[in-house]
Amino acid sequence: DEIPTVVGIFSAFGLVFSVSLFAWICCQRKSSKSNKTPPYKFVHVLKGVDIYPENLNSKKKFGADEKSEAKNKSAMPKNSLQLDLEKRDLNGNFPKTSPKIQSSPDLENLSPKHFAERKKDSVSPDSLKSITSLSSEDKQDKLGTLFFSLEYNFEKKAFVVNIKEARGLPAMDEQSMTSDPYIKMTILPEKKHKVKTRVLRKTLDPAFDETFTFYGIPYSQIQDLTLHFMILSFDRFSRDDVIGEVLIPLAGIELSEGRLLMDREIVKRNVRKSSGRGELLISLCYQSTTNTLTVVVLKARHLPKSDVSGLSDPYVKVNLYHAKKRISKKKTHVKKCTPNAVFNELFVFDIPCEGLDDISIEFLVLDSDRGSRNEVIGRLTLGSSAEGTGGEHWKEICEYPRRQIAKWHMLCDG
């Protein structure tokens, strides 16, 4: 009787030990996973707070030093911008304290030595006052100033860009005389990293204070990169308005000593002319017996650059209209990095009426962009009411049905 009892006791102790050991191993694995750096290409910090659940470096910011943080806290005035999470709303934003949004006070209190820029690029309070006294014609030429900071974290091998604020933006909404600005940023020349800020409503002096951290960029390659900031105003009912752009070549900018604060004037975007939109080769054939229209998108040539980064990634969107109402749409595949794309894609449309009098076709050549809305490179319309080669091509397919007719057409503004 004693032997089974002893065996039962040892079995119970063995079971308890095995369960405890298994629980301890699971806890160790869970803690080791939580300490690992998350596999994000970049980390977005909104108003100084990491929006991801994992914190990469406990309570420390990237590239921040405890001594420098202590100095900043001691030098910061009482009325400066501070993070108070209890005062935030559900979206993480601070409640408005005044009807007019002012620029960040921490930027106004910065000493001139932090902005190691040329005189023409720096903005002083006196110059800001003088801007308000300019005439209406001069104000239209002034597109505002962008404030941002650059930093490289050698420990994490990460490039950090903080978009602080913009001042003196023009009003894009004529009714409310204000804008809904946001910023799209691209690292050139490869366009691998594309990010954008949130939209701030009805303000000409938006304070974004958003940080983007890009991993996997060696410090030796920083000199070969260029930052492209596109400042836009959100429009709910149509295409967003482009306010301007800022281009920052990083060649000659030294980031080894720490964070560098910079400001740049926003310049007008380099708008392409109609003659520089390129050409599109289209083949059409009208089958009167089956009442169908065959459209072949053959080639595109001499397409312009979509932005300062280089070549476009074009594709063609085909829209069929009946009495100015779109009844069908098709699109080609995307051709990567080429100004002379070869598509050779065929589409067959059923015509809902006899004849082509009320039918028209619209071709939109767009630049594929994963990070944001695709940009229209050029537009072409073929129909009985179209002018130039578009009208001539349409007349020929009506006069010669069942014949495939191809023509080159110049693209116009999108």
Automatic annotation (TrEMBL):
One of its GO terms (biological process) is negative regulation of secretion by cell. Residues 142-263, 276-409 form the C2 domain. GO terms for molecular function: calcium ion binding; calcium-dependent phospholipid binding; clathrin binding; phosphatidylserine binding; SNARE binding. Its main location: membrane. The chain crosses the membrane at residues 6-27. It comes from the Eukaryota. Keywords: Calcium, Cytoplasmic vesicle, Membrane, Metal-binding, Phosphoprotein, Repeat, Transmembrane, Transmembrane helix. Residues 62-81 are annotated as: Disordered. GO terms for cellular component: axon; cytoplasmic vesicle membrane; exocytic vesicle; plasma membrane; presynapse. InterPro entries: C2_dom, C2_domain_sf, Synaptotagmin. It is a single-pass membrane protein. Residues 62-72 have a biased composition (Basic and acidic residues). It holds the Pfam family C2. Belongs to the synaptotagmin family. This is SYT4 protein.
